[in-house]
């Protein structure tokens, strides 16, 4: 069977994770990588034995007859590679957030719809088994209707310094939880209230150290999301993530810093053993299935645009100190 031909654009931190995940997949082959940074390209080619390297995306598309691309360039440089890939007719796995402006996000959605290619957003929580388990419990109705949630995502300060002020911690981390919460609570959002704190990271890089985001749905349900890149370097976990969702029939709580998942109703409490799976190979597998079959991405352009609108409202709210109405 002919293998699915994948190209990866942007071979930085997460681009390398994608190279590893797709390289291991039995049905696909990473045939090309593309980056503007020549030395990084050569390093990745040598480490992972990638056949072709390019500094020009158009040339890669012309020469490689790809089936799919992974786009892992910085947030503000998502639009151009998507438009180029859509014109080349290949399916796209695009890193989150979809873009940094609604205009770019809409251009991305228009391009993939016009070209009739699939767009899958790298919303990783959809693929981390514990988070996926919680979502499925709500989807199946086991835990009733979601009414209240708390979510937390935190990285060490060095991640903030690595990104050097090029994005907010909401864009970098919060988008994952926003997408996850929307996937459970739905799109009928009423308001977003957000407050941020300016400490060490703000003083050095000009972006807030943390955000508390409160999302309220028209149903009256509420979620509070804390995101920070102010964790000390001594924390053994590079990334901490926790989520509690309370429903009318039960609740679920995962804490991947404290290594715990439990799901409870009035009649049972389930403590499945943690997989400690980062989900990237499951995400890669889903993208390959989307290319090979009529399966649809879990999070597509609309989900990306919804999460972006929430983040933009959160930014406005944190500046103005008032809740911001949101229409998704
Ligand atoms: N899903 C996740 O868990 C996760 C984790 C980290 C980052 N991300 C997202 O992935 C994207 C990349 O983040 P990162 O931390 O890997 O960034 P990075 O800075 O480590 O790497 C980005 C790479 O893209 C290259 N690049 C920039 N513009 C390019 C272009 N036009 N053509 C080709 N290459 C180009 C850079 O040279 C660099 O090597 C961002 O959107 C980020 O939000 C997602």
UniProtKB/TrEMBL annotation:
Lineage top rank: taxon: Bacteria
The record's Pfam families line, in alphabetical order, gives: GFO_IDH_MocA, GFO_IDH_MocA_C
Q: Which residues form the Gfo/Idh/MocA-like oxidoreductase C-terminal domain?
A: 173-326
Chain ranges of the Gfo/Idh/MocA-like oxidoreductase N-terminal domain: 4-122
**InterPro entries given for it?**
Gfo/Idh/MocA-like_OxRdtase_C, Gfo/Idh/MocA-like_OxRdtase_N, Gfo/Idh/MocA_Oxidoreductases, NAD(P)-bd_dom_sf
Protein family:
Belongs to the Gfo/Idh/MocA family.
- Protein name, UniProt field: Oxidoreductase
């Amino acid at each position: 069977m002919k293998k699915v031909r994948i190209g990866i654009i942007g071979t930085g931190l997460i681009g390398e994770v994608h190279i590893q995940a797709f390289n291991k997949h039995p049905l696909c082959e990473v045939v090309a990588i593309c980056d503007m940074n020549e030395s990084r390209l050569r390093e990745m080619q040598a480490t992972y034995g990638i056949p072709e390297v390019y500094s020009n995306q158009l040339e890669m598309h012309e020469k490689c007859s790809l089936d799919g691309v992974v786009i892992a360039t910085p947030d503000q440089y998502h639009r151009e590679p998507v438009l180029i890939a859509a014109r080349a007719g290949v399916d796209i796995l695009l890193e989150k957030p979809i873009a940094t402006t609604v205009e770019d996000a809409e251009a991305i959605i228009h391009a993939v719809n016009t070209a009739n290619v699939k767009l899958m957003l790298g919303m990783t929580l959809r693929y981390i088994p514990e988070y996926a388990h919680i979502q499925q419990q709500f989807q199946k109705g086991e835990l009733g209707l979601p009414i209240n949630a708390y979510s937390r995502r935190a990285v060490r300060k060095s991640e903030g310094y690595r990104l050097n002020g090029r994005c907010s911690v909401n864009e970098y981390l919060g988008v994952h939880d926003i997408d996850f919460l929307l996937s459970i609570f739905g799109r009928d959002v009423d308001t977003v209230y957000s407050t941020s704190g300016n400490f060490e990271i703000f003083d050095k890089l000009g972006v807030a150290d943390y955000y508390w985001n409160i999302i309220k749905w028209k149903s009256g349900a509420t979620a509070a999301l804390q995101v920070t890149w102010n964790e000390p370097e001594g924390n053994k976990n590079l990334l901490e993530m926790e989520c509690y969702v309370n429903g009318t029939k039960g609740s679920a709580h995962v804490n991947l810093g404290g290594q715990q998942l439990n799901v409870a109703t009035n009649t049972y409490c389930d403590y499945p053993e943690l997989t400690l799976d980062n989900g990237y190979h499951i995400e890669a597998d889903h993208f390959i299935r989307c290319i090979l079959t009529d399966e649809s991405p879990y999070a597509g352009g609309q989900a990306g645009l919804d999460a972006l609108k929430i983040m933009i409202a959160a930014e406005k709210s944190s500046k103005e100190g008032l809740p911001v109405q949101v229409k998704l």
